Amino acid sequence: MQKRVLSGMQPSGKPHLGNYLGAMKPHIELQNEFECFYFIANYHALTTVRDQKKLAEMTQELAIDYLALGIDPKKTVFFKQSDIPEVTELTWILSTITPFGLLERAHAWKDAIAKGKKNPTAGLFIYPVLMASDILAYQSDLVPVGKDQKQHIEIARDIALTFNSTYGETFKLPQDLIDKNVETILGTDGVHKMSKSYGNTVDIFADEAEFSKQVMSMVTDPARIKRTDIGHPEICNVFALQKIFNLPKIKEIERKCREGKLGCVENKKFLCETIFTELKNAREKRIELRKNLDYIDKVLNTGAKKARKVATETLDRVKRHTGL
Ligand code: AMP
Ligand code: TRP
Prior knowledge:
This protein is mainly alpha-helical.
């Protein structure tokens, strides 16, 4: 049997290079090898977005972005989280066996509290239980995400183990799938992980001028003031990205940088062109997809039907095992 891969992404802003390398690109590549379920996590986004128009718009935009990047609805089950009520139903059931302390130790929750988040909601606190339901409802084997989501998958595993030992074998135990080369992509500041909240993103579908501005603003090796200064690629974030985007040329880039023969500006221009070229087809496809929004709805509805079938089977089993 082919292994099942599942992942979700929140519609909470424009996708950046971190999302692309840590999640979207691997998601697309995995379609060729596995049975894939991908969804737009609009229920999770409700914990941060409270504008009806914005949420609906961003959901549609993310669907377009994903399809443009190469999600193939013939191969992959692609849907919206809120179209599967069985998952939210399962969330309640799982919350009754999830220790409070487990959720208190979740990094995302701890960070929110440490940053002094005002009036944190119950929804934010049980965010990992909804995520566990997403994963377990589809009996997923592998969950490809960026490193920042690893703990949430461990929590899903813990919840599955507790449920199985309490009520008997019900859920498959999921495993994270994290690409070692792109665990965490740093932002343009070269310090923090790339994230909208740090304002250090390179937005993959920004227009050409903006995209180039963002790439050219990347901080490089601080020891290099002049083009001829000796470089230290091991501490340079641009070099880290070159390793991903221009691997065949990486030896030459490294040597020239160390010898002070490749300037940072030149290096960034080259990186910028390579990424832009890689995304050229997706950019064009996005324009086409936007002309046919009915098609987007159709794809998501078809995906929801397939996903619901699987989630319903799991929920029926859960109900039998719990005596509901
Ligand atoms: P988010 O934008 O936080 O909702 O994340 C969506 C997906 O992108 C998740 O799988 C994250 O792990 C991944 N991701 C977000 N930021 C980064 C980053 N800077 N580096 C690698 N992966 C990331
Ligand atoms: N919490 C994930 C994020 O912010 C999105 C998500 C929701 C998800 N449910 C999931 C990811 C299930 C993987 C599996 O990126």
